[in-house]
Design a protein that fits this description.
Blueprint lengths: L2 H15 L6 H12 L9 E8 L9 E7 L4 E8 L8 H29 L5 E8 L3 E5 L1
Parallel strand pairs: 3-4
Antiparallel strand pairs: 1-2, 2-3, 4-5
Length: 139
């Protein structure tokens, strides 16, 4: 078994087996990993999960998921749960901030992955994943 296939198997097993975790953002990731998405069908392997955007410095942020096709093409998926159960001005502002933040994080983390992998990659695509809008490519 190749390293890429083994890495994918281990990460997938961990995510799908973590059934006790009811964190809404984790549940988005688990559903995405279990069900897949047509826009990312070519990215058949999970390359990383909860990865340090600035290696060795977790305070630089942790990306949610990196997928690869095994041929040097990668997709960064950043998830955010948007609380739609509340109303009022403060709740609307918080939802708007969450939507904006996940889009910006996806783009920032894709740029970071480009720097980390350097010559190993051909392309990196950025995607945001929310409970409201599903999977959206960020340009």
């Amino acid at each position: 078994m190749t390293d890429l296939a083994e890495r994918d198997r281990v990460i997938r097993t961990y995510i799908q087996g973590r059934s006790w975790d009811t964190n809404p953002e984790f549940m988005l990731i688990r559903a995405f990993v279990s069900e897949g998405h047509a826009d990312l069908a070519a990215y058949t392997h999970i390359h990383d999960y909860e990865w340090e955007v600035d290696p060795g410095h977790s305070n630089g942020g942790c990306g949610d998921l990196v997928l690869t096709d095994g041929a040097g093409n990668f997709a960064v998926v950043e998830a955010k749960f948007v609380d739609t159960g509340r109303s009022g001005h403060t709740a609307r502002v918080k939802r708007t901030k969450s939507r904006s933040q996940v889009r910006e994080q996806a783009r920032t983390y894709a740029d970071a992955l480009r720097r980390i992998l350097g010559d190993e990659l051909l392309t990196v695509r950025a995607f945001s994943l929310t409970n409201e809008g599903g999977l959206v490519e960020e340009r």
